[in-house]
Amino acid sequence: MIPLARLLAKRLATSLIVLIGVSMLIFAIARIIPGDPARIALGPNATAEQIADLRAELHLDDNIAVQYGYFIADVARGDLGISLYTNRPVTADIALYLPATLELVLVAGLMMVCIGLPLGIWSARWRGRAADNIIRLISLLGVSAPSFVWAVILMLLFAFYLPLFPIAGRISDSYAISPVTGFLLIDTLLKGDIRAFGNAAWHIVLPAFALALSGIGQAARLTRANMVETYEKPYIEMAQSYGFPARRIANHYAFRPSLIPSLTIIGLDFAAMLGNAFLVEAIFAWPGLSRYGVAVILRKDLNAIVGTVLIISATFLLVNIIVDLLIAFLNPRIRYSQRPA
Amino acid sequence: MSAPTLDIENLKLGFKGYTGYTEVLHGISLSVNPGERVALVGESGSGKSVTARIVLGLLQELRAARIEGRVRFEGQDLDSLNRRERHALRGKAMSMIFQDPTSSLNPVFRIGDQFHDVLRRADPRITRDAALGRAASILAEVSVRDAVRVLNAFPFQLSGGLNQRVMIAMALANEPALLIADEPGTALDVTVQAQTLHLMRKLVEDHHTAVLFISHNLGVVREFADQIYVIYKGRIVEQGPTEAVFDGPRHPYTRALMAAVPRLTGGGIPDIDENSPDFGAPLETHEREGRQ
């Protein structure tokens, strides 16, 4: 499919431009926020000489444009520098923490799609009936509180008062899983340890659900709204007049044309979850990138800040590209036109 | 003579709204015999389309609608059927053609897949390949030569005229006893409309399908229909064989409707009262006994 490939190339090119812009911005902001990174890293007992040495080593006394030049040259080699907080390469730190966050966000995204969209479809199909009203109430509840509030409420309800789920962490300490991909749900399966997989899955349910809840509500509400509008279209009346089964009309004829706006919002929500994950990670003691990100910002760990932000931006852009491609795939008018509409 | 394909007797329809009860149809009677082409003619808002939707059973699903009177389909009272039995008629024993073919086909599914769903109404186990083959042969009947391309296309890739032929082919695919055509092709330009109507007429003649043809276009009606019913504000004001009605319209509203047809010779549209009391005259309200 040539138009799809062209669309992909175009999106990749614009994403690269966005990434370069983001890197410049965060590079500058990290250096503008007050505080001397060398002094913070070396601690209160460091001598002026030690600080001057570290500043020289980090090129902190050079012009900011020159510093950016060093940075870009390193990035091109896949080197994001050494973290002053952990004393390890930033890439290693990110490789350690990113999978936990991605795992959480991916599971939450899956919940958003697999729960939010069907709720929206049912709601639209039974519009005006009791089922619709109940679903609308639930989704309104979902969107009206931020994920960290839900995290606390869910934790209290289902881990404390009613201990159905573990209260924190990614997996029980009794399981020793050596990281291969860093995704516990995958690593446990690779090891063939079903019990450990179950344990990891059991741990991820509450934090992922807390993270997904507002997205579920939003996906359901938007899908319902779009589908209710679609139900007024002549092609739905035609499907009804031909006696197509009501379920097929709902799941195919009305859902598919309404999916595109929902998908855009799901993509945005999905990306926003990368940020929201921080508070949820903090509440559930989830060892993810967001916690690392805040720790390095507080330490003014320049390399780590820039690296973390770049990785999150890249993930955000990737999700957007995937959503764009999905939309193009679902909408034949885009798929078959030379210029994306 | 066998039972009429469609027999409507004293049909009333009203809607319950916030402002109270509004009656839309005040007692309509009409019948369509097997293989007969009957036109229901009237201006916008006269109740043509709701009549069609009652026959299909679509309005009955609305909670605000109140329907009285009797609708018989092939001798069977539709009120005596349960939901499932009513549903079984749709798309199989009766089908419908809509005003705008392009917006009546789902924009994100290929024509072939939509055709498959239509054919599945008569044969739930038909495979996609078998459905496409059958669709191609029906499309050939409406003079679509490159059926493979058409079935593989999305509606926006085809012209309005081609979509209209697809609609006609779909409507007749399951050999229904009754075809309801709600202002077919009004959204198309006049020459294309004439072409597709010609095809439709040939097809319903070949298949001996009864047609309830809803239109405001008198020229088209004269070409197409055997019988004509003129509807005004929810009442049938005049009925009869097409030629008789055109040659000697008896009701003031029918005469006004005919005077409103634009003429090639020019002269503009005559000044017609929006709401003459004459139009409400009960001249032909229940003329059905005189027919047959």
From TrEMBL, chain A:
Segments spanning the bilayer are 12-33, 94-122, 134-162, 200-220, 263-284, 304-330
Checking PROSITE patterns in the record gives:
ABC_TM1
One GO cellular component from the entry?
Answer: plasma membrane
Q: How is the protein disposed in the membrane?
A: Multi-pass membrane protein
What domain of life is recorded for the organism?
Answer: Bacteria
What are the entry keywords?
A: Cell membrane, Membrane, Transmembrane, Transmembrane helix, Transport
Boundaries of every ABC transmembrane type-1 domain copy: 98-327
Q: Where in the cell is it found?
A: Cell membrane
Matching SUPFAM superfamilies: MetI-like
CDD domains in alphabetical order? TM_PBP2 (cd06261)
Give a yes or no for keyword Transmembrane helix in this entry. Answer: yes
Q: Which family does it belong to?
A: Belongs to the binding-protein-dependent transport system permease family.
Q: By its UniProt entry, which PANTHER family does this protein fall under? A: DIPEPTIDE TRANSPORT SYSTEM PERMEASE PROTEIN DPPB-RELATED
Instruction: Tell me what this protein is called.
Output: Peptide/nickel transport system permease protein
From what organism does this protein derive?
A: Hoeflea halophila
Tell me the classification of the organism that encodes this protein. Bacteria, Pseudomonadati, Pseudomonadota, Alphaproteobacteria, Hyphomicrobiales
UniProtKB/TrEMBL annotation, chain B:
Record keywords, A-Z: ATP-binding, Cell membrane, Membrane, Nucleotide-binding, Transport
Q: Which GO terms describe its biological process?
A: peptide transport; transmembrane transport
- Give the membrane topology: Peripheral membrane protein
- The molecule here is called ABC-type dipeptide/oligopeptide/nickel transport system ATPase component
Give the record's GO CC terms: plasma membrane
ABC transporter domain ranges (all copies): 6-258
GO terms for molecular function, please?
A: ATP binding; ATP hydrolysis activity
> Which residue ranges does the record annotate as region Disordered?
268-292
The species is Hoeflea halophila
What's the superkingdom here?
Answer: Bacteria
